[in-house]
Design a protein that fits this description.
The protein has 12 helices and no strands. It has 209 residues and is mainly α.
Length: 209
């Protein structure tokens, strides 16, 4: 068991190190040689866990879609909002998430193994469909359209915020995004009860966040 746990930790450390390289230099310029230098592992040890750089990139992308921190709420719309707020809160602290976004907008990487945007869209759509079934959405609101456009808007806000480090943080900007979206999709009775505070994600994750 100890050997298996050590292998898991090694695999995660490789992905985190490669994620850092993807962020710093981009997919094309990130090399195995640089990864060897950064991790202190041999090429053989790296290849034992990941046979190619492409496999490492896929590993980074696979870890990006998560419902970590989302708790059952009275309204499914709140869970949908929490999905975006939690991701915004975790993004600056977790290189794997930042690298996943960078890989998704990198034309070379995207042409090789796609993105995880469809998975995020599907995850959001599932919550929105439940919200619709509970009467939480306005009659004209279409879950598939909302989910698709929200993922596109979220990604754009993240990229712009990262490029403007002196401006508001991602937590604040994403909270504002939902504050603009929700009046157009949430029923009046539900809208007043939704929490879109930029501090909500930190409260959901607890004091360690």
């Amino acid at each position: 068991m100890a050997r298996q746990e050590r292998a898991i930790r090694t695999r995660e450390s490789i992905l985190e190190a490669m994620a850092g390289l993807f962020i710093e230099v981009g997919y094309e310029a990130a090399t195995i040689a640089a990864l060897v230098e950064r991790t202190g592992l041999t090429r053989g040890a790296l290849y034992f866990h990941f046979p190619t750089k492409e496999a490492m990139a896929r590993g980074v992308l696979d870890g990006a879609v998560t419902r970590e921190g989302i708790l059952p709420q009275t309204y499914k719309l709140q869970e949908w909002v929490d999905l975006g707020l939690l991701l915004a809160h975790r993004m600056p602290q977790e290189p794997m998430l930042r690298a996943a976004v960078q890989l998704s907008v990198d034309p070379k990487a995207r042409s090789m193994f796609g993105t995880r945007w469809p998975d995020w869209i599907n995850l959001g759509e599932d919550l929105l469909v439940e919200a619709e079934q509970r009467g939480e959405l306005l009659p004209h609101a279409v879950p598939a359209e909302i989910a698709r456009l929200a993922v596109g808007a979220w990604t754009g806000v993240q990229l712009v915020t990262e490029a403007r480090p002196q401006g508001p943080g991602l937590d604040e900007e994403i909270a504002r995004l939902y504050q603009l979206i929700l009046p157009n999709v949430a029923s009046v009775g539900v809208l007043a009860k939704l929490d879109t505070s930029p501090h909500r994600a930190k409260r959901l994750l607890g004091p360690a966040s």
